[in-house]
Amino acid sequence: MEAPVGIEPEAPTAEAVPLETPEPTAGRLVRLRARLSRSQNVFGKSLLGLLARDRLDDDAWDEVEESLISADVGVEATREIVERLRERTRVLGTRSPDELRGLLTDELVAALEPDLDRSLKTDGKPTVVLVVGVNGSGKTTTCGKIARVLVADGHTVLLGAADTFRAAAADQLATWAGRVGAEVVRGPEGADPASVAFDAVRRGVETGVDTVLVDTAGRLQNKVGLMDELGKVKRVVEKHGPVDETLLVLDATTGQNGLEQARVFTEVVDVTGVVLTKLDGTAKGGIVIAVQRKLGIPVKLVGLGEGPDDLAPFDPKQFVDALLGTDA
Ligand SMILES: Nc1nc2c(ncn2[C@@H]2O[C@H](COP(=O)(O)OP(=O)(O)OP(=O)(O)O)[C@@H](O)[C@H]2O)c(=O)[nH]1
Q1: Do residues 32 and 315 touch, judged by C-beta distance below 8 A?
Q2: Does ligand 1 come within 6 angstroms of the Cβ of 277?
Q3: What is the pLDDT tens value at each position of the chain, 328 positions in all?
Q4: Are 183 and 199 in contact (CB under 8 A)?
Q5: Ligand 1 and 305: CB distance under 6 A
């Protein structure tokens, strides 16, 4: 099949990069859990320390509240968590550290809405995934990491480099493609992102791949500009069929600020899941609670490092256990 004009599909082996074999899933997840505990359990320990005091008076509860707010949980969610915790502690007359830890675990897990569906769709023909978010949030890296996991699970993947704003982004994506054994479709620098996205999905349909991941540019110059660009990308891609997932990549270290930017994306495109990156770089893991609550969208994946295998499915119970050091 001839390549579309101006678009350069690249065979997986074009760069002659030796294919890497990803770490088996079980080992990878254990390692990532340990990394999550390392970055988060200062917060967990301080919370548990407060609850282990001899007297749980108003001051102690205020400190619990402050501790949650400073971990980016958000004011509203914090109030609810503390209120419920106080009430349950009072009713049960709970004093033992283990029981308190149990109650805190329950409340944090409940705040993370454990029943939300966090699976990534994989049943499209092909499954089309748009990856959106502000510059530098980790979109390109996340596309590469997702591709790697999918390929390791036996899926075929095509990467679409619709971030034509930054030339290096397409190079970066092509390098990932070479590493994981995926095809990449890219356009010349400054090409229309929508046309690259269109060609990537067309190519994916032609070659019968399982998943097409489209990396987009996240210039947040203003909402109208973003709406125009992402809206167009989505519309043209939909000429081939539905977009199955739109993943919003959010940098956890940007805290409440990042949340405001994220909200703009959710107003522009129908986001189906959040990927919270750089959770290894912040002790403020409470942002996961704030993100879900404010955006009303499940966190599906978390990024825990720059390495190719540093992406994990988000599991509320495991997350809270890592936070409170219960999984050690
Ligand atoms: N520590 C850490 N770094 C990460 C993580 N995810 C991505 N990064 C790093 O964040 C930086 C930006 O990542 P990119 O993937 O280039 O971000 P982008 O959103 O595609 O950026 P643009 O192409 O400019 O829009 C890179 O140095 C990544 O290695 C993560 O989970 N943890």
Answers
A1: no
A2: yes
A3: 444 444 555 555 445 566 777 777 777 778 888 888 887 777 888 888 888 888 888 998 999 999 999 989 999 999 999 999 999 999 988 778 888 889 999 999 999 999 999 999 988 889 999 999 988 899 999 999 999 999 988 999 999 999 887 778 899 999 999 999 999 999 887 889 999 999 999 999 999 999 999 999 877 667 778 778 898 999 999 998 899 999 999 999 998 888 988 898 898 899 999 999 999 888 888 999 999 999 999 999 999 999 888 999 999 998 898 888 775 4
A4: no
A5: yes
141 lines ligand 1 (CB under 6 A): yes
Instruction: List the domains of the chain with CATH numbers.
Output: 8-15+26-328 (3.40.50.300)
Atom of ligand 1 nearest to the CA of 133: 19
Residue 315 vs residues 115, 194, 201, 288: alpha-carbon distances, Å: 10, 34, 30, 11
ipTM: 0.94
In contact, 209 and 157? CB cutoff 8 Å:
yes
Residue pair 97/48 in contact (Cβ under 8 Å)? The answer is yes
Ligand 1, atom nearest to 305 Cα: 32
- Reported for 56-63, long-range contacts at CB under 8 A and 24+ positions apart, including other chains, are 56/89, 61/86
Atom of ligand 1 nearest to the CA of 310: 31
The answer to whether 323 and 279 are in contact (CB under 8 A) is no
Distance from residue 138's CA to the centre of ligand 1 (Å) = 3
pTM of the model: 0.89
